[in-house]
Automatic annotation (TrEMBL):
GO molecular function annotations of the record: coenzyme F420 binding; oxidoreductase activity, acting on the CH-CH group of donors
Oxidoreductase listed as a keyword: yes
Swiss-Prot/TrEMBL keywords: Oxidoreductase
The protein, known as: Pyridoxamine 5'-phosphate oxidase family protein
Gene Ontology CC annotations of this record: cytosol
Length: 189
């Protein structure tokens, strides 16, 4: 598998100790890129995230992983993903104890007849509760507009908005080509 990994703004911002040894968090070698290539790759990743609206959310508590199919919307810059759930769910309890999450977005429906062209985007993220009521109301409305089927969930008294700040992206472009971009250090999220 051909792997390209980059760190934005630099390896010193990466929260994984392997980055100091020129490895990404998955243990793959970091490859250097031509100057100016990083923004194009990041733009491609954000475009894929914004073009879709369903993902798999992976949470973990007590070393027990949990996956959920979720509807989402993104912030305008594509670096925060907003989902909704009820506060009495396993995923919300997991998030309350461990804010680190992973999201998976893919194009398998678009390329069902040519699987070699499927792209998958893994998003490493951090659950950061919304502190601004106006922002929460705006994102809830965007979720309602994009996903009318979850209006009942959004109106439920135990409804919780789940903002996920993007820490890194891993894009698989077909079965052989991978690109990794660290967007934000966890300490800065």
């Amino acid at each position: 598998m051909s792997t390209r990994s980059i760190v934005i703004p630099g390896p010193e911002a990466c929260c994984c100790p392997q980055a100091r040894r020129s490895l990404c968090s998955a243990g793959r070698p970091l490859e250097t890129r031509q100057q100016g290539e990083e923004p194009r790759v990041l733009e491609k990743m954000i475009a894929l995230l914004k073009a879709n609206d369903m993902c798999v959310l992976a949470t973990c508590r007590d070393h027990k992983p949990h996956c959920s199919l979720m509807a989402y919307v993104t912030a305008e810059d594509g670096l925060t993903v907003y989902l909704a759930t009820r506060q009495d769910t396993t995923k919300f309890r997991n998030l309350s104890e461990n804010p680190r999450v992973s999201l998976l977005v893919d194009t398998r429906l678009e390329w069902a007849t040519d699987r070699s062209r499927i792209q998958s985007l893994t998003v490493e993220g951090l659950y950061v509760p919304v502190e601004n009521p106006a922002e929460e109301a705006r994102m809830r409305q965007r979720l309602r507009d994009r996903h009318p089927h979850i209006a009942g969930l959004l109106d439920h008294p135990l409804s919780a908005l789940i903002p996920v700040r993007v820490l890194s992206f891993l894009l698989l472009d077909g079965p052989e080509k991978a690109s990794h971009v660290r967007v934000l250090s966890e300490t800065l999220a």
